[in-house]
Design goal:
- It is a single chain.
- The chain is α+β, with helices and mostly antiparallel strands.
- The protein is built from ten helices and 32 strands.
- The strands form five sheets. An eleven-stranded mixed beta sheet has the order 1-2-3-5-4-6-7-8-9-10-11, with helices on both faces. Strands 24, 25, 26, 27, 28, 29, 30, 31 and 32 form a nine-stranded antiparallel beta sheet that branches. Strands 12, 15, 16, 19, 20 and 23 form a six-stranded antiparallel beta sheet that branches.
- A hairpin with a 2-residue loop joins strand 10 (299-303) and strand 11.
- It is globular.
Length: 642
């Protein structure tokens, strides 16, 4: 079919395709193409998202816009996902390099070969990806650099910000949703009567791969996955607060190929404002059109209400400033002859952490940190005589009490206003050696930050020994002792005159096609996004999360999709082994016109002992209300050092 796009240079067409792989598996794809004379460059987005429902709205805005500017845009469902054949290589949550990543890259390489051979493709291909698909794009470019000419990666999920600590919130919630996503059936409107056979094959093959990731995090440290390398020219973008920020900065210094990066005030995703910049990137590397893509600053970042630009990274305008914890930063502490300050936090420290991956929901951002500061040991500066601008990755070097073990170390950097309001700037964590082992000095890397601390405000470094529910508590609640006289916070401080004489940095949203109409029905009794209950008598803290995205959506092609998720955490103030987490996720897909009705229920429950993590995962699939598949998985995963 075709539709006019008068504001773009080209009219576009859209068609659905089946791409054959060498093993006979067919991958479903959607192609937007300009009505141009001769072959054109191509942009490939290869993802585990379902292109006919889950990502359909964003796809229908961005890909026709690229096609209207002269690019053939191919959106492909990964093996075993959406309407593609085969068995899923993973269940949606981030995976480390391994069998699933290798299989994903191998399939992607075959898609590249197929794409380059099409008569409408010039053979010059760019890769586009957001989140997990951004990670896939970087890996695929590294695997086939001769076939890929450029990459645009938004919030690429690579690297580890947790310093070897065992993740709770992100791993647990996404594992449950990821299993449900992988268990969704193909859509009979697109694959016909074969949908049921494909679905049963998919269900029989499912394994909750989060258990392997939890085992890797809970066991002895494995060689760290690199924070992402650029094998071909790469344009990377992320929002401050997204866990990918440090990885994006790492891409800038990862190799000899040109890289440009933008860090802005956005949630997880690819913001509309940078689409014109991505088009300039494609034009330069896929068309040889010089639109100034390489004349922009290497790094453009949003810092406290304004855009700034760095002509190189590391920037000559940013230098490391060291703050001793017994000088420029000091703790009130308690009078003692012992030079070590003891950090021992209640187990509910971390309840005001906000979302690990902010998606733009009202409850995603961390609130005022004064409650968290009160559960931590804080080192404060005097009021600053002039503004302090931070840009880069802060770090912390701690001298720990010898032989005592440190368990979990969590550091938060806050901006404290004169009225006491404490705003989180960045944070980091480290799983230090357990008690009984020689404890070296601890080096904690915090997440990348861009922030201006105004004159008259104070810097605050808050240290805690737990951070629930982001991280699983250490089995021993003893905390750790540190020597402030041999401990240092290092901050990347940007020169206040760095912008003098520089060209202003600005972005403007493009005019995108209107997405297909999507009718949304919110639940009649919507849950709060984030609800915390303190049972004073039991010394228990419970938190319930329910995403604002829950509800019923009716797609233009007649598909009705209904999703609901509830996540709950509990912990007793003084008992780290009381920590428990549970997520229930359900999705119903219905086509009333043909009487098709399927439902997927998944549930993950996690708890811990001193020596093991105990995980129970449940999956039920129903057709027309009748159970067609059910399975439970039990995992007993040893803890590090147990």
């Amino acid at each position: 079919m075709s539709h006019p796009t008068p504001s773009y240079p080209f009219r576009t067409t859209r068609e659905d395709l089946r791409i054959p792989l060498s093993d006979g598996t067919g991958l479903r794809a959607r192609l937007w193409r300009p009505a141009a004379d001769g072959p054109v460059p191509a942009v490939l987005e290869y993802s585990a998202g379902r292109l006919t429902d889950w990502t359909a709205t964003d796809d229908a805005r961005r890909h026709p816009w690229y096609a209207g500017h002269g690019y053939a845009c191919l959106r492909v469902d990964a093996r075993g996902h959406g309407n593609s054949g085969g068995r899923p290589a993973h269940t949606g949550e981030p995976s480390s390099a391994g069998e699933s990543a290798d299989g994903e890259a191998a399939d992607g390489a075959e898609v590249l070969t197929w794409l380059a051979a099409q008569p409408w493709c010039s053979g010059r291909i760019g890769l586009l990806g957001t989140g997990a698909a951004g990670r896939t794009a970087l890996r695929l470019a590294a695997r086939a650099p001769d076939a890929v000419h450029a990459v645009v990666a938004a919030c690429p999920e690579v690297g580890d910000l947790l310093g070897g600590a065992v993740p709770a919130a992100d791993l647990h919630v996404r594992a449950t949703a990821g299993l449900a996503d992988a268990a969704r059936p193909p859509d009979p409107q697109y694959v016909g009567d074969d949908w049921e056979r494909m679905w049963r094959e998919r269900l029989e093959s499912l394994e909750p791969s989060f258990a392997q990731r939890l085992a890797a995090a809970a066991g002895e440290p494995a060689p760290a996955e690199p924070p992402g390398t650029a094998a071909v020219p790469t344009f990377a973008v992320a929002g401050w607060g997204d866990p990918s920020c440090s990885a994006v900065l790492g891409l800038l210094s990862s190799g000899p190929v040109p890289v440009r990066a933008v860090l802005g005030p956005w949630p997880h995703g690819l913001p509309d404002e940078v689409l014109p910049e991505t088009l300039r990137w494609w034009d330069h590397w896929l068309r040889d059109v010089d639109g100034g893509a390489l004349k922009t600053p290497v790094l453009r970042s949003w810092i406290s209400g304004r855009w700034t630009g760095e002509e190189a990274w590391p920037s000559p305008d940013v230098r490391d400033i060291h703050y001793g914890l017994d000088g420029p930063l000091r703790t009130a502490g308690t009078a003692s002859d012992d030079r070590y300050v003891q950090v021992r936090s209640p187990q509910h420290t971390g309840l005001n952490a906000g979302a690990y991956v902010p998606l733009g929901r009202p409850a995603d951002l961390p609130p005022d940190q004064r409650e968290e500061d009160g559960r931590s040991v804080c080192f404060d500066s005097l009021p600053l005589p002039e503004p302090l601008e931070l840009l880069g990755v802060p770090s912390l070097q701690l001298r720990l009490r010898p032989g005592a073990g440190a368990g979990l170390i969590v550091a938060r950097l806050c901006d404290v206003a004169p009225d006491g309001t404490s705003t989180l700037v960045t944070r980091g964590a480290l799983a230090a050696p357990p008690a009984g082992e020689p404890t070296p000095d601890a080096a904690v890397e915090l997440a990348a930050a861009g922030h201006t601390v105004p004159a008259g405000h104070r810097l605050r470094l808050a240290l805690s020994s737990t951070y629930w529910p982001w991280l699983w508590p250490d089995p021993e609640p003893a905390g750790f002792g540190l020597d402030p006289s041999h401990s240092t916070l290092t901050l990347p401080v940007r020169h206040l005159a760095a912008d003098s004489g520089a060209e202003p940095v600005a972005f403007a949203s493009p005019t995108l096609p209107l997405p297909p109409p999507l009718h949304t029905t919110e639940p009649l009794t919507a849950r709060p996004e984030r609800l915390t209950v303190h049972d004073i008598g039991r010394h228990e803290w419970r938190t319930e999360l329910s995403p604002a995205s829950d509800g019923t959506r009716t797609h233009p092609d007649g598909l009705v999709r209904d999703e609901h998720t509830v996540t709950a955490y509990r912990v007793l103030t003084g008992a780290p082994l009381s920590a428990q987490a549970r997520t229930d996720h359900s999705v119903r897909l219905e086509r009333p016109a043909i009487g098709w009705d399927v439902t997927i229920h998944t549930r993950t429950e996690l708890r811990c002992t001193a020596t093991h993590f105990l995980a129970h995962t449940h999956l039920t699939a129903l057709e027309a209300g009748n159970t067609v598949f059910t399975r439970d998985w039990q995992h007993r995963i040893p803890r590090k050092g147990a």
